[in-house]
Design brief:
Blueprint (H helix, E strand, L loop, with lengths): L46 H10 L4 H32 L5 H50 L2 H6 L2 H14 L1 H28 L1 H8 L2 H36 L2 H9 L3 H24 L2 H27 L7 H42 L21 E8 L11 E8 L4 E6 L5 H7 L8 E6 L2 E2 L5 H7 E5 L9 H6 L7 H10 L3 H5 L18 H15 L3 E5 L7 H15 L3 E5 L11 E6 L2 E6 L1 H7 L2 H12 L5
Parallel strand pairs: 3-8, 3-9, 6-7, 7-8
Antiparallel strand pairs: 1-2, 1-4, 4-5, 9-10
Helix pairs in contact: 2-3, 2-6, 2-12, 3-5, 3-6, 5-8, 5-12, 6-7, 6-12, 8-10, 8-11, 8-12, 11-12, 16-18, 18-19, 20-21
């Protein structure tokens, strides 16, 4: 079961365009000082990896069995054709038996038709199976990423994630679509051809197969070399994807143009693209000459066979009939194509192992926030929230200092709590713990007396709504963005939610009304309008616990007043936790907590804390100096 917060935008470790070639740029990957997720060190492919790849095809073994039957039939039919040719040359033509000649000729035509039909059916089934396997991989990776905690996404570039799903899985298309069929088909064809060649003449067969072990060794060596280059190429593609995602987003374009860096970003992207060109050329040309030599030797094999047959006859050995020799050469040439294809498939499989390993890295990511098998589902949540001796650190394994220390807060159902403090005091971190975007490292957070770690994700997602400072909207219509909170919401419910959020009149006045596209990240709307859309979305969800994470801190005072009206409407009757930047928004809170370095240093109502003349009073004085009067 998956849990995805429906309004919170994960904090980004970097903003604006990234991946530029300017060594001074803090946005270059190697200069990014934020903690980032890095994949484990690459290990050589093991039999376990191969078995794991084979297991991907297990659900489709019935269809693959049908492909195997078609392959066997195709191979048998292909082997029959040279024997028909031998009979034509050794019997039908020399003896003038036109009836037999006609039958044998029709037989050769029939084998060609049968091979064509079998080939089409093989392609249809194998392509379907391959695409289903790719679908399974894409879905499995996406499902695993949906289960990852917020920490993973704050340490990983969005373009890297997209590259794994698009480029890496897309790069395996040829392998998973045709490799299984190709291996079975070509292996069967080679085996059948060798058996038929032995039946015709064992001496010529030995001559034909002398160099085959060398060819296999060369192909394996080429495959290992290409695998290394493929790993580098996929990393470069991931880096380029990250650059495109960040620098061509609305925020990236705004930053690039206002900083006068558009030309520089284009130039740097071109440099990164040149790197990819070099890797692509190296990947395609690696071992090409060696594989070409194999092709040349195999193509020259008929001449060697004719020479060997002539020597055998010339030195008193048993004569080889013309029909036998022609049929043998036909079989040998028929074996040439599947042999080369087998070698090429071996190279492709080794190359694809690099892609599979990158995908398996994501599939093997540990999920640190999971739902317990016996997790409790609460049908009607009252909204009592408690923080009991809460400790939290973002990286406890590496000895990072705690962000929150020994927090005890009781927030009864229907009451309001405001959390204030200087930047970095732990205010937003506190809000992440209630919807379980992170798990506490000490103590516990409970809703209605139950530890949030013991609740089902469905209960948490329906119980806790979040409105953050950085509102995220999809590139879709207003109605679709609102309906994301409640897919089965009626049009009237959507309008009622918009009215409560003080945004209905504005939407209704647009030419397309609720069908208006909001644009990338909602940039067709102002900051205040986006905030009210987020509030409307939360109202539609109707959670008993509401978290407001500095929802008005980036707005001007006039817009803030309009948004605050919407917030007051949605907060009525709900348990509300407000992370406050502007203290004017929290004066009426039932309880105000002042954080400093992750600890509670003051607690009380607005009047009580002002009278105390401590940290909170100082913040109020500073806030009054910085906030202009509304005119």
């Amino acid at each position: 079961m998956n849990y995805t917060p429906y309004v919170l935008t994960p904090p980004c470790p970097q903003t604006g365009p990234a991946g530029t070639r300017d060594p001074r740029s803090p946005l270059r990957p190697e200069n990014d000082l934020t903690s980032r997720w890095t994949p484990p060190k690459k290990k050589p492919a093991t039999p376990t990896d191969v078995r794991r790849i084979v297991r991907l095809f297990r659900p489709y073994r019935g269809r693959l069995a049908v492909v195997g039957v078609l392959v066997a039939l195709s191979s048998l039919v292909s082997v029959a054709s040279p024997f028909l040719l031998k009979a034509i040359l050794d019997t039908a033509i020399p003896q003038g038996r036109t009836g037999l000649l006609s039958l044998l000729a029709l037989g050769m035509i029939a084998t060609a038709v049968a091979n064509g039909v079998f080939g089409v059916l093989q392609t249809l089934i194998s392509t379907t199976v391959g695409q289903r396997v790719m679908h399974d991989l894409r879905t499995a990776v996406y499902e695993r990423l949906q289960r990852m905690s917020l920490a993973f996404f704050t340490k990983t570039r969005t373009g890297e994630v997209q590259s794994r799903i698009a480029n890496d899985i897309g790069g395996m298309q040829a392998t998973v679509t045709s490799t299984a069929t190709s291996l079975v088909s070509n292996a069967t064809a080679v085996i059948a051809s060798v058996v038929a060649m032995l039946a015709l003449d064992w001496r010529l067969t030995v001559v034909s197969l002398l160099l085959l072990p060398v060819f296999v060794w060369v192909a394996r060596k080429v495959g290992r070399e290409r695998k290394k280059i493929t790993t580098e190429r996929q990393k470069q593609m991931a880096a380029m994807s990250a650059i495109v995602t960040e620098s061509l987003s609305v925020s990236g374009i705004l930053l690039g143009r206002t900083m006068g860096r558009s030309e520089s970003l284009t130039r740097d992207f071109g440099t990164e693209s040149e790197r990819l060109v070099d890797l692509e050329v190296r990947s395609n040309m690696q071992g090409r000459w060696r594989m070409a030599v194999i092709g040349i030797v195999m193509s020259a094999m008929p001449a060697l066979l004719y020479w060997a047959a002539g020597l055998t006859t010339g030195h008193g050995g048993p004569a080889i009939s013309i029909g036998t020799l022609v049929a043998f050469v036909s079989l040998q040439q028929g074996m040439f194509r599947p042999t080369v294809s087998l070698l090429a498939t071996g190279v492709q499989v080794q190359t694809s192992l690099a892609l599979f390993q990158r995908i398996f890295e994501y599939l093997d990511l540990p999920v640190d926030i999971t739902e317990k098998p016996d997790a409790r589902h609460i049908e009607r949540v009252r909204g009592d929230v408690r923080f009991e001796n809460v400790e939290f650190s973002y990286d406890p394994e590496n000895g990072a200092a705690p962000t929150l220390r020994s927090l005890d807060i009781d927030l009864p159902a229907g009451s309001s709590l405001a959390v204030v403090g200087a930047t970095g005091s732990g205010k937003s971190t506190l809000s992440y713990l209630v919807p379980r975007l992170y798990d506490v490292t000490g103590g516990r957070v409970s809703i209605d007396g139950t530890d949030v770690r013991d609740l089902t994700f469905d209960t948490l997602s329906s119980a806790v709504g979040v409105v953050s400072q950085e509102t995220y909207l999809f590139h879709a219509s207003v109605a679709e963005n609102l309906r994301f909170a409640k897919p089965d919401a009626t049009d009237e419910e959507i309008r009622d939610a918009a009215r409560a959020a003080q945004i209905h009149d504005h939407i209704d006045g647009l030419p397309d009304g609720y069908d208006t596209l909001v644009g990338e990240r909602g940039y067709r709307f102002s900051g205040g309008e986006k905030q009210r859309l987020a509030i409307a979305r939360t109202i539609l969800r109707d959670p008993p616990v509401l978290i407001l994470d500095e929802a008005t801190s980036a707005l001007d005072t006039r817009t803030e007043a309009a948004v605050q009206q919407a917030i007051d409407a949605v907060s009525a009757g709900r348990t509300t936790l407000t992370i406050a930047h502007r203290l004017s928004t929290v004066r009426d809170a039932d309880q105000i907590v002042v954080l400093d370095a992750g600890r509670i240093v003051e607690r009380g109502t607005h009047d009580e804390l002002v009278a105390l003349d401590g940290r909170y009073a100082a913040l109020v004085r500073r806030d009054s100096l910085m906030t202009p009067a509304v005119t």
